[in-house]
TrEMBL record:
It comes from the Bacteria. Residues 4-126 form the VOC domain. This is Glyoxalase. Transmembrane segments: none annotated. CDD domains: VOC_like. It comes from Desulfofustis limnaeus. InterPro entries: Glyas_Bleomycin-R_OHBP_Dase, Glyas_Fos-R_dOase_dom, VOC_core.
Length: 138
């Protein structure tokens, strides 16, 4: 297997609410797609939103999961100020801040929020590790 992730698909309970959160709330660019799915272009990958039960059925597993899913998604930014800005933006459109931004033991600055379905996003600034395009002005 080649070391890459092409797409991240989140099984969501309310597709329209999640589309609103990611497209209009967080400002992710949405691609054209059939009404039962939503795709957003990210830098080198895609985020897909799909009905939770439909995704579980597609994977042949139960859709009844609750609680901590055992993973988080991370969005690395260039500054502590940008961490604060992204966290504030997410909170303003309904995200639940589970850990307010603060200095970390690894020398960075980070916080977490949960999207409308409880998926955890870490917003982080690591001064030693930038994961973004070299020409990104932010």
């Amino acid at each position: 297997m080649k070391p890459r992730i092409s797409m991240i698909t989140l099984g969501v309970r309310d597709l329209e609410r999640s589309i609103e959160f990611y497209e209009n709330g967080l400002g992710l660019p949405r691609m054209d797609a059939p009404p039962e799915v939503a795709f957003f272009t990210l830098n080198g990958t895609w985020l897909c939103l799909y009905g939770r039960d439909a995704l579980a059925e597609d994977a042949s597993v139960s859709g009844a999961g609750t609680g901590f899913a055992g993973f988080s998604l991370a969005h690395n930014v260039r500054s502590e100020l940008e961490v604060d800005q992204v966290m504030a933006q997410a909170a303003s459109v309904g995200a639940v801040v589970t850990k307010p931004p603060r200095k970390t033991e690894w020398g960075g600055y980070a916080g977490y929020f949960a999207d409308p379905d409880g998926y955890l996003w870490e917003i982080a600034h690591n001064p030693l590790f930038w994961v973004g395009p070299a020409d990104d002005p932010a």
